[in-house]
Specification:
The protein is α+β, with helices and mostly antiparallel strands. The protein contains ten helices and 18 strands. The strands form four sheets. It has a five-stranded antiparallel β-sheet with strand order 3-2-1-4-5. A five-stranded antiparallel β-sheet has the order 8-7-6-9-10. A five-stranded mixed β-barrel has the order 11-12-13-15-14. The chain is elongated. The termini are far apart. The N terminus and C terminus are likely disordered.
């Protein structure tokens, strides 16, 4: 009786199949199995925990399905805003003039292919690879793997690829550099590349500038200046009108103004003559007379100097009106004859020997002024027997100018 009663209590309990979940797909392969007509008493009692678990999973599936329908983005960390931000990050403006970063992945005879993380690659033509004229992109340091910022200058209608340029950016930087150099009023060097009836064309910072004949200090004809570098200063820098005008005369005037007597400069031997050597010292030709090469007699200049040699020389005199500069290495010799036997020692000690020479000049000038003051008491200064140049009145410092530290003059 008890077993029969228990069977009646559980006879209506059935385990719903998984196919009843709203998330499951209906299966057409197998027909729905009919429920048993007789109760299974012992199986229901043993598998009761499995039934509860199936019911819990079914409820979870129902809830998940409901969320997918009503709130599909709930609990998802990647929001719609994040998606739009990602699109903006990898999207770019392909208008002409826009700058974009890219990586060269292939080079060829006429240019290079550039990866710009777009739907198609971009192309860098050889004429846009550098501000200078080149025959291959590798002359501009462009190889596979080269990364740089490019500017978009056009579009290829055939395949919708973009045309890039480095030259355009370098062109802008060159004009900016010229404006800075003009503001600093510095002397620069430009290479003469051609000439016309009005002057010469020079290459400077990758740009072509013009130097009128009226602004060239040398008397050389234009053809002699081609392929030579000459010192220049800026007269006009106008990017809008593409006008770059320079002056060699102004640069030479500034260079000559800095040539002080006794100063040491580095020069290059340009040519040899029986009477001396012409030395280029920063665009100015100076004469190193044969008598100023060494304390020892030099019978053949070619045994000491050769065209193209670089050496240190001292300025002996400078005639600005005539544009003549006299030079000396004789005054730089630590001991007589060093310029012939050991010129490297002369160049090593050049600044030291020049300092001694300038001290001698200063001493001679001071003693000359002192001699003049002995006969001019109205000046208010007197020279004592100890060599102290001091005041006559009590309003001036009592010590005056001490000349005792000046080294004694020696025969040059």
């Amino acid at each position: 009786m008890k077993m029969a009663s228990l069977a009646q209590q559980f006879s209506g309990l059935r385990c719903p199949p998984l196919s009843s979940s709203p998330l499951s797909k209906p299966s057409s392969a197998k027909p729905k199995r009919a429920s048993l007509s007789f109760p299974i008493v012992s199986a229901v009692g043993v598998n009761d925990p499995q039934v509860k678990e199936r019911q819990r999973m079914s409820q979870l599936f129902d809830e998940a399905y409901e969320r997918c329908v009503t709130a599909p983005m709930e609990g998802v960390p990647f929001t719609v805003e994040d998606f739009h931000a990602a699109l903006d990050k990898y999207d770019f403006d392909n208008e002409i003039g826009t700058k974009i970063k890219g990586t060269v992945f292939s080079i060829e005879a006429n240019g290079a292919l550039v990866d710009i993380t777009a739907k198609s690659s971009a192309y860098l033509p050889i004429q846009e690879a550098c501000i200078h004229r080149i025959k291959h992109v590798h002359e501009a340091g462009i190889f596979p793997g080269f990364q740089e910022e490019f500017v978009i200058v056009g579009e290829n209608d055939a395949d919708d690829s973009l045309i890039l340029s480095l030259r355009s950016m370098q062109y802008d930087l060159a004009w900016e550099r010229c404006r800075q150099l003009q503001a600093e009023d510095v002397v620069v060097k430009g290479k003469v590349v051609s000439a016309n009836k009005g002057g010469v064309v020079v290459l400077l910072e990758g740009l072509r500038g013009f130097v009128p004949f009226s602004q060239i200090s040398t008397k050389s004809i234009a053809e002699e200046l081609i392929e030579k570098e000459i010192p220049l200063k800026f007269v006009e820098v106008n990017e809008d009108n593409s006008r770059l005008v320079l002056s060699n005369r102004k640069a030479m005037a500034d260079s000559q103004a800095q040539l002080g007597i006794g100063s040491v400069v580095t020069g290059t031997v340009q040519s040899l003559k029986p009477y001396g050597a012409f030395i280029d010292i920063g665009g100015i030709n100076g004469l190193l007379h044969v008598s100023q090469i060494s304390h020892d007699r030099v019978s053949d200049i070619g045994t000491v100097l050769q065209p193209g040699d670089t050496l240190k020389v001292m300025i002996l005199s400078h005639d600005r009106e005539r544009g003549r500069v006299s030079l000396s290495t004789k005054k730089l010799e630590p001991t007589p004859g060093d310029m012939i036997r050991n010129p490297e020692l002369v160049f090593e000690k050049a600044d030291e020997m020049a300092q001694i020479f300038r001290q001698r000049i200063a001493q001679a000038e001071a003693m000359a002024r002192a001699d003049m003051l002995r006969f001019q008491p109205e000046s208010g200064l007197s020279l004592s027997s100890e060599g102290i140049l001091g005041p006559l009145s009590s309003d001036l410092p009592a010590d005056g100018l001490d000349l005792s530290d000046v080294p004694p003059a020696e025969d040059s």
